[in-house]
Structures
1.
Amino acid sequence: MKNLVLVGFMGSGKTEAGKLAAARLKMTFVDMDEVIERRHGQTISMIFEAKGETFFRLQERALVRELADRQDRVIATGGGVVLNPNNLRDFSRTGIVICCWVDAKMAHERTKNTKHRPLLGDQTDRLMRIETLLAERQHLYKAIPNRIDTSVMGVEQQTDEILRIYKQQAGL
Ligand code: S3P
């Protein structure tokens, strides 16, 4: 089976919906950040702090190449995977890429009580930080043809939508 690759900004529900979709498709779920953390024995925040974002992006890139060579996986990517166009190109070779769009307000709502995202910093001015980052990246998310707006749905409906697109495109 083709991979199902979930892309989208922080707080777009990729991990939660990805886990549900994987269970329903009986496919293996992979969270890219979790794999990177496990392999380095450090959290994403620690990696950003000790080695910098560039180092993290290289690990992310290497993992995309590895995962794109396999099949039968539901993959939740990190929000910045779209920054390198080669990532989406590779994923598209062996998988169906779906963008989970989220607007800034909802991304803030869903991430405001979390502390594990280095790019969002501490609580101060987080909404502004999200608005800025999303404005910088929105053209990359919006260029993905398979796109659902998760700002207006709960995780169950999001999973249904993801599965509908995946099954239609995988010919299931
Ligand atoms: C990032 C998103 C994070 C994680 C890292 C960078 C980004 O993943 O990969 O903090 O650049 O948007 P989530 O989208 O799962 O929060």
Note: The longest helix spans residues 126-142.
2.
Amino acid sequence: MQLFVDSANIAEIRHAAELGIITGVTTNPSLLAKEDPTQPVEKIIATIYDIVGGHLSVEVVSTDTDGMIREAEEILSWLPEATIKIPMIPTGLAAVRELSRREIPTNVTLVFSPTQALAAANAGATYVSIFLGRLDDVGHDGIGVLRQVMEIWDVQGIESEIIAASVRHPMHIVEAARAGAHIATVPYKVLMQSLKHPLTDAGLEAFLRDAAKRRQQTLSV
Ligand code: E4P
């Protein structure tokens, strides 16, 4: 399972990319709204692409099909490699269908059920993002929905790639990988949490202490 970072913050993306653990970035309007308002969105997007160079999802904010397609064209004029993120609404599906006809990659976002996922795939979505954390927030089972989607994908041989999104903690990464998600897009904080283990820290501390002790002993012989 590939990992993307779900962020529009340059420092976070740069660090995650330096570690070599991510192959892409997903942004959304709320993530972009947290960043420097003096920087135009196209500049932030271009900087992110310079850093990671892989998948980069950029979301439209229109809610009508023509508006979404116009926005997609505008995004592609700044970044031809962008994947266009489209909300899972009927007008969005029509936009996905048209973009797919033009062979433009799309990521259908705000997907909360297997029927929505299936509709997005049938419309021609390249990626379908299942929102785990937001399902859990309303008392539903995010991972359970993801498992159902992966089972359908398996049985039906559907090609759209499934992104486990709205990831809130490292166990979401584990369960998404177990369920067979193709990608998990993970906030920077959760990505860093997922690298830590107290036994790694304690083990390293002991190794360094013992190495220093041995150096000391060698010097005093
Ligand atoms: C996915 O592409 C979205 O940007 C993201 O995962 C939303 O997650 P949230 O529920 O943490 O806002």
Note: The first strand starts at residue 2 and ends at 6.
